[in-house]
Structures are given as structure tokens and as C-alpha cells.
Amino acid sequence: MTAGIWLGLALLVAVAAAGIVLYNRLVADRNQVRQGYADIDVQLKRRSDLVPRLVEAVRAYADYEKALLTSVTELRSNALNARQTAERFGIERSLGAQLQRLVLLQEAYPQLKADANFRQLSDALVEVEDHLQYARRFYNGAVKQYLTRIESFPDLIVARLLGFPPEPFFETDEREAVRVAL
Asked: Longest C-alpha distance within the chain, in Å?
């Protein structure tokens, strides 16, 4: 064989090896995003499990807060039924804001503030929100790395050829964390 054939073959092997390395990096980054989403999903499910119990604890003290209780219940249902990631994130943001309002009802109802069940549920909600905040940071870091990779050369060539779609960030509204003052 001639030197030109060997050079062409070596170049083809080098391009294939580079493509394999790029593909594997993209897959690793995509899996990290999926892991981050799964971590968020676990915390959102924990929060969702607290919602009915928290609503019932408040309902006994705040019958005329029906609009808020209905909103929280509907948002929880919508979040559980959301199919797309971006849609679910939007619903979860709204649910978080409504849960904050629900917990703040304790200020208007001193007897609710003294209720042991409500305090326990509020503490559990604060814990879940703290874990959720960490999971969001991890997820958003993974998405940032993944998006940087699929938008940077030469990875973007492999990403576009093999259909690696962008993933959404989990953005939250600017709000303070729910704090329970006992």
C-alpha cells in the first residue's frame, strides 16, 4: 500500500475516534441532566405528598381560604399530570409560590401556628424545599454543561447529527424560602 492510502486510513480512524469520544461525552452529559431531573422529581414527589396533608391541616382553621386551598390542590394535580419538562417546571414554580402562601397563613391564624400537625408538616415542607433547591442547582449545572457542549465546536457537529436536543433550565421566581416561625 502507498503512503497516501495509509495516511487516508489513519485520518479516517482519527476522525472516527474523535467522533466516538465526542459522542460519549455528550451521552455522559445528557445522562447527568437526566440524573439531575430525577433528583428534582424525587423532591417534587415528596413535596406533592405533603400537599394534601398540609391542605387538610389548614382547612380546619381557614375555611374561608378556599381559593388558595383549591389552587394548591389543582396545581398539585396539574404538576403530577404534566408531560413535558418545561411545562412541569412552570407548574411547580406556581405550586411553590402557593405553598409559601399556605404556610404563611399561620400568621393570620395563631391556633394554626400552635397545631403540632401543621408545625410538623411545615417543617417537612421546609426540609423538602431545601433539598429541592440543592437538586435544582445540580440539575441546572448539568444542563449548563450539556448546553455548552452541544453549542460548542466540534461537539455541536456530533450533537446535531445525532439529535441531542437542548434541555430547559429549572428557573424559579425570585422569592424567599419558606420559613416557619414558631
From this structure: 91
In a domain, 109, yes or no: yes
Residue 107 belongs to some domain of the structure: yes
Task: List the grid coordinates of 8.
Answer: 487516508
Looking up residue 124, the CATH number of its domain turns out to be: 1.20.1440.20
Provide the domain count of the chain.
1
- Could you identify the residue written with the cell 437526566? 34
In the structure grid, which three cell numbers stand for residue 96, read together? 411553590
Residue 90, domain member (yes or no): yes
What is the distance between the alpha carbons of residues 160 and 154, in angstroms, rounded to a whole number?
A: 10
Q: Which domain holds residue 87?
A: 3-162
C-alpha cell of 25? Answer: 461525552
CB atoms within 10 A of CB 148: 11
pTM: predicted TM-score of the whole model, two decimal places: 0.71
Tell whether 182 is covered by a domain.
Answer: no
Could you list the pLDDT tens digit for every one of the 182 residues in the chain? 688 888 888 899 999 999 999 999 999 999 999 999 999 889 888 888 888 888 887 776 666 577 788 888 888 888 888 888 888 888 888 888 888 887 777 777 777 766 777 778 888 888 888 898 899 999 999 999 999 999 999 998 999 999 999 998 887 665 555 454 44
Task: Tell me the three cell numbers of residue 172.
Answer: 424559579
